[in-house]
Structures are given as structure tokens and as C-alpha cells.
Amino acid sequence: MTALTMRNHRGEEISVPEFSATEAKNSFGKVLDTAISQGMAAITKRDRPTAVVLSLDAYQALVDAQSRPLDSLSHEFDALLLRMQAPRARDAMMDAFDASPDELGQAALLAAHKP
Predict the structure, then answer these.
(1) Is residue 63 assigned to a domain?
(2) Is the pLDDT assigned to residue 114 strictly greater than 70?
(3) Is the same domain home to 54 and 72?
(4) Domain count, the chain
(5) Based on the domain organization, do 13 and 36 belong to the same domain?
(6) pTM of the full predicted structure?
(7) Are 12 and 37 within one domain?
(8) How big is the CA angle at 101 (ends 99 and 102), to the nearest 5 degrees?
(9) What mean pLDDT do residues 29-56 have?
(10) 77: helix, coil or strand?
């Protein structure tokens, strides 16, 4: 049997309580109580983990962890877009579009050599 492990909120690796599918079917209340008290419980079939029952707190932690990076990227994008729409940035972009290939090459060399 493959024992499932997870890291708790303190970063410690702990084993996940396991129930056979038959135990889960016959004693779902016990599985539910275990998930609520310990965060999750695994359900096995033929001694292999096949499903996990999560407490609402564990589920919410997963959802929150997943949405945080997206929220962070959204804020970064909004800030970048705001900077790009400023008059100075707009003028610089127009200058770049109007520049000749030689002027763009010189600007790239200057930018590459800036500390």
C-alpha cells in the first residue's frame, strides 16, 4: 500500500489517514469526522489511494493558494498597462515606431551597456 503524505500548515510532513472504499461506504461519518479534524482523509481501492475527502478549510486553502498568483499577476499587468498609457511612455513608443533600423540598433546598444 502506498501511504499518502502531505505537509501541514507548519510545513511538517504527515501521513494522511486512509480508509478502504468499503469502510468509507459503510462508515462515511467516520471518514467525514477524520477529514474535518485532520484536514483530509484518503479512500483506497485495492490498497491504492483513489480519492481524497477534504475538510472545507483544506479545500479553501487550496482555492486561495491557486488564486493568489493570478491576482498578483493581474495587479502587475494593470500597473504595467497604466505606466504604458502615460504620455511619456506613449511618446517613447511613437519615437520607437518612427525610428530607422540604424537608430533602433544604436538605442539597443546604449541600453545594453547601461549599468
Answers:
(1) no
(2) yes
(3) no
(4) 2
(5) yes
(6) 0.55
(7) yes
(8) 95
(9) 94
(10) helix
Place of cell 544604436: 106
Q: Give the SS3 label for residue 75.
A: helix
Residue type for 67, please? S
All three cell numbers of 44, joined, read: 483506497
The predicted-structure confidence for 52-91, as pLDDT tens digits, reads as follows 999 999 999 888 877 667 777 888 888 888 888 899 988 8
Task: Give the relative orientation of helices 56-84 and 87-98 as an angle to the nearest 10 degrees.
Answer: 60
Do residues 25 and 47 share a domain? Answer: yes
Give mean pLDDT, residues 23-45: 95
Instruction: Say yes or no: 50 and 76 in one domain.
Output: no
Domain that holds residue 19: 5-58
Q: What is the pLDDT, as a whole number, of residue 2?
A: 59
Helices (H) and strands (E) in the chain, counts: 5, 5
